[in-house]
């Protein structure tokens, strides 16, 4: 059987991985400054993560959401502790797009409205409502186009208010740091305005933290450099360090009812143990603070490259050049054995390493970048 070829592939075949490196069958080490698309948070094959998953596999790996699974409550408590959002409620699912679907659905249930306001450059996933609120016509099928969505630019609070005034908007969804779009970031003032407008017009504010959450930005959630309290927060990627797990945090004003949301796989025993192991290591190794320190180091080194613009925050960073970076990324992989990310802004090289990255890894990256430039 042939694979359905939707991914353009690099000719690299990793067979094992450790911390910030992946290795091919010949033992060639690749420095992973991409983290498998911002997924690897505590480092590849972390011993505590492996031990937690092994232990759980030896007991029970999965049962449906029809039984008591105390690991879900343990995880909710741990997320509450890390994020200080103790009064929120956790619903678990298995991917970023699924988190977005559930967030939008909750906003629509809660407000009784159906239109969504999203932002230019947004990426929220590829499933039905998630892709409809993604600013990329090429991946929106006619089926998805029936969703009622409008896109406005960041910072244009008048455009936001004009739409909310119409009274039919259930949710405003935003990425506190745009990922796939190329690291554009709304200002703190604009985010605070969004909260105010959403409160005024009975609209839910959704912070999409699928990529920026779980300490990658230097705060637990990226929006937490402001005082806002979104109605719903989506999370996935770094939450499981490679195990497929996602979830939403729901403000106490939004009430649960049996059957309102549901999933077969979401919140299974293994998924909870993976996420708990991630939180243990984030805390024990102070990786959130470390992300902030590594950002400073990265910025100092990057500032020495003439004409390059540094974007993003924490370990969700981008270098914007005045040329398209596709060929540069290829040379970094094949000649220097360094993985980096691209974005829909073709001039941005994305840096999304495991949060365990050290100064020597950035030194190696900048030396390699200097050579290939
Ligand atoms: C901000 C954001 N939201 C949602 C998604 C969708 O996540 P997934 O690919 O797990 O469905 C992504 C994926 O890149 C993302 O970056």
Query: From the 3D coordinates, which CATH architecture of the largest domain would you assign?
Result: 3-Layer(aba) Sandwich
Helix-strand topology string: EEEHHHEHEHEHEHEEEHHEEHEEH
Q: Using the coordinates shown, work out and report the CATH topology of the largest domain.
A: Aspartate Aminotransferase, domain 2
Structural classification: alpha/beta
Rg (C-alpha, Å): 20 Å
Coarse shape? globular
Strand order of the largest sheet: 4-10-9-8-7-5-6
* CATH top level assignment of the largest domain: Alpha Beta
Query: For the record, what is the CATH homologous superfamily label of the largest domain?
Result: Type I PLP-dependent aspartate aminotransferase-like (Major domain)
**Unreliable segments (pLDDT under 50, ≥5 consecutive)?**
none
Number of helices: 11
Number of self-contained structural domains = 2
**Total number of β-strand segments?**
14
Task: Give a nutshell description of this structure.
With 373 residues, the chain is of the alpha/beta class. It is 34% helix and 17% strand.
How would you describe this structure to a colleague?
The chain is of the alpha/beta class and 373 residues long. It has 2 domains: 14-46 and 286-372, Aspartate Aminotransferase, domain 1 (Alpha-Beta Complex), CATH 3.90.1150.10; 48-284, Aspartate Aminotransferase, domain 2 (3-Layer(aba) Sandwich), CATH 3.40.640.10. It is built from 11 helices and 14 strands. The protein has helices spanning 35-38, 47-59, 70-83, 96-111, 128-132, 157-164, 188-200, 269-284, 287-302, 326-334, 359-372; strands at 14-18, 21-24, 29-32, 89-93, 115-119, 149-152, 169-174, 204-208, 232-235, 246-250, 309-313, 316-320, 338-339, 348-351. The strands form 3 sheets. Strands 4-10-9-8-7-5-6 form a 7-stranded mixed β-sheet, with helices on both faces. Strands 1-2-3-13 form a 4-stranded mixed β-sheet. A 3-stranded antiparallel β-sheet has the order 11-12-14, covered by helices on one side. Strand 5 (115-119), helix 5 and strand 6 form a beta-alpha-beta unit. Helix 3 (70-83) packs parallel to helix 8 (269-284), helix 6 (157-164) packs parallel to helix 7 and helix 9 packs parallel to helix 11 (359-372). The N and C termini lie far apart (41 Å). 48% of the residues are buried. The model has no long low-confidence stretch (mean pLDDT 98). The structure holds pyridoxal-5'-phosphate.
